[in-house]
Amino acid sequence: MRREYGNEQVYFVGGGLASLAGAVYLVRDCGFPGRNIHILEEMKILGGSNDGAGDAEHGYVIRGGRMLNDETYENLWELLGTIPSVDQPGLSLREEITQFDNANPTRSRARLIDSTGEIQDVSSMGFDMADRLAMGKLLITPEPALGVTRINEWFAPHFFTTNFWYMWATTFAFQPWHSAVEFKRYMLRFMHEFPRIQTLEGVTRTPYNQYDSIIVPLHQYLEPLGVDFTLKCTVTDLEFKDGDGITVTAMNVVRDGTEDTIRIHEGDRVIITNGSMTEGSSLGSMTSAPGLNRSKGSSWKLWETSLRRSRGWGTRPPSPIMWMNPNGNPSR
Ligand SMILES: Cc1cc2nc3c(=O)[nH]c(=O)nc-3n(C[C@H](O)[C@H](O)[C@H](O)COP(=O)(O)OP(=O)(O)OC[C@H]3O[C@@H](n4cnc5c(N)ncnc54)[C@H](O)[C@@H]3O)c2cc1C
Questions:
Q1: Which amino acid residue places its CA nearest to atom 21 of ligand 1?
Q2: Which of 37, 123, 182, 280 has the maximum number of C-beta atoms within 10 A of its C-beta?
Q3: What is the pTM of this model?
Q4: What count of other Cβ atoms lies within 10 Å of the Cβ of residue 260?
Q5: Distance from the CA of 64 to the center of ligand 1, in angstroms?
Q6: Tens digits of per-residue pLDDT, 12-64?
Q7: In angstroms, rounded to a whole number, what is the distance separating the alpha carbons of residues 43 and 46?
């Protein structure tokens, strides 16, 4: 039996993929009225890290590019399986992307080159026994035990000279100082890529950039359902019921430069997917390097201002678990 929602409203802070997916699930799976869903986005474009904008004269900006993968991304594929393609009526986005990828498979023939441009032989991963042991141990070590360990605290220097490291790090954008937990998660999630990491055949590509191939169709699906999109609208602060830090009673926003307050009534919901990989990024050009942006982005500012008004946010003490990494150094 469908639930009646009356005049309940749902507000999503941010217009990235998470909010767009949330709006689809609410309408599609919960029968929630689209006209009562509000997406507030500070940029002038939807998509968050999946943005894509520009023109031939001034150039294009696409801050993120996802390496889609057939065997993983279960949720995304399920979502796109019910969104119609814009270019090919009758096909879902999932079908459109698969069709394109089958017709244009990825197959790198020069996965690694040396400094002179010579194609390298990558038929061996290049591991020594210590690398193999460290890798095996990483995979069976529970996350709490890894704590804040970095990849280069777990593996010996030799590991970072292997073909495997160069291919894995450049596929998934790892640096040696990144989190060992994150590295382990990727190892487990993409284990099936091992035999084809040298060709990148596992990478599924979309017909256009992911803004035009995913975000635009999601927008075009949601808009006729009445979903309300407000661009150039930054949520700057949340007010909570008696300072409980959970029940939002009002959102302070700056909409197109003007301050405003959105009252949140009993039964309404505010959904915030805090954090953004691309906010705070700065852009370079073909002739100038991007400047270092030290200012905080709006999602972190919102976190900080809301934190001041709430009790119990972000106060969990660090994990006390001690663990020895394969090099014998304790890591927390
Ligand atoms: C270069 C790159 C490569 C990537 N590769 C992959 C990959 O291969 N596979 C993969 O799965 N993922 C990948 N990702 C990650 C993936 O893109 C993100 O996890 C995903 O897009 C996050 O979606 P989101 O909606 O949670 O956040 P975002 O896309 O960051 O959207 C958040 C939105 O909220 C807005 N916002 C924030 N604060 C406020 C506020 N206070 N008021 C109003 N609006 C606000 C922001 O402007 C932004 O538009 C990659 C990301 C990048 C940058």
A1: 49
A2: 37
A3: 0.90
A4: 11
A5: 8
A6: 999 999 999 999 999 999 999 999 999 999 999 999 999 888 889 888 888 88
A7: 7
**What is the full DSSP assignment across 156-220?**
-GGGGGSHHHHHHHHHHT--TTSBHHHHHHHHHHTGGGGGGTTTTTTEEPPSS-HIIIIIHHHHH
Alpha-carbon Rg for the chain in angstroms = 23
Reference 222, options 8, 48, 38; nearest CA is: 38
- Asked if 208 is an active-site residue, the reply is no
- Residue 228's H or E segment, with its range, is strand 228-230
What is the best residue among 11, 38, 49 to mutate for testing ligand 1's pocket, by most ligand atoms within 8 Å of CB? 49
Where b means 16+ CB within 10 Å and e means fewer, 58-73 reads eeeebbbebbbbeebb
CA dihedral for 144, 145, 148, 150, sign (positive or negative): negative
Rounded to the nearest whole angstrom, what is the distance from the C-alpha of residue 324 to the centroid of ligand 1?
Answer: 34
Q: How far, in Å, CA of 324 to CA of 332, rounded?
A: 9
236 — alpha (psi -120 to 50), left (phi > 0) or beta? alpha
Cα separation, 107 vs 101, whole angstroms: 11
CA of 9 to the centre of ligand 1 (A): 24
